[in-house]
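Q: I'm building a small set of examples for a reading group on sequence design. Run inverse folding on the following structure and report the sequence directly after it, with nothing in between.
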């Protein structure tokens, strides 16, 4: 399958797929960081953050699946190895063992800011490609992270 089967121009879809694969790689590292935060959270905020990190990694996992399926819908293969994810991700792994709870939250805020920036870039490229399906999907991802970032910043008392 290729993009013309869903009424898109192949040459305009290639940059969309490249950016979606980059986003997919970053989401995988972000997902694992959320899992590490969930597993290793300690302290007086344990109950609050343990649940929040689980909510966030569950949402990230759903997003990962949607990204991969959208790439396939556009007629291309999604990245599917950790080697690709680590090589292509701008988000870096961290060791969450012994990490302070608010530092965990700040690390997630930084990831989300980076992901939002990537998503804004994808929105520009999808608009140029006439790819409303990808645009709608990515816009939904971005809106979730914008609201979540506001909440997490409020949690650590940062504006």
């Amino acid at each position: 399958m290729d993009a013309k089967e869903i009424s898109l121009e192949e040459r305009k879809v290639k940059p969309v797929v490249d950016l979606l694969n980059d986003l997919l790689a970053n989401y995988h590292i972000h997902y694992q960081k959320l899992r590490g935060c969930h597993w290793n959270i300690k302290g007086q905020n344990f109950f609050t953050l343990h649940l929040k990190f689980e909510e966030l990694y569950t949402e990230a996992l759903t997003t990962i699946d949607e990204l991969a399926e959208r790439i396939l819908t556009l007629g291309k293969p999604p990245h599917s190895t950790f080697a690709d994810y680590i090589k292509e991700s701008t988000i870096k792994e961290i060791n969450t063992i012994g990490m302070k709870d608010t530092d965990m939250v700040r690390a997630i805020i930084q990831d989300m800011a980076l992901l939002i920036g990537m998503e804004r870039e994808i929105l520009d490229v999808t608009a140029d490609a006439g790819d409303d399906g990808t645009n709608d999907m990515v816009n939904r991802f971005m809106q979730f992270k914008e609201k979540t970032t506001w909440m997490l910043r409020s949690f650590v008392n940062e504006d």
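The CA atoms of residues 41 and 49 lie 7 Å apart.
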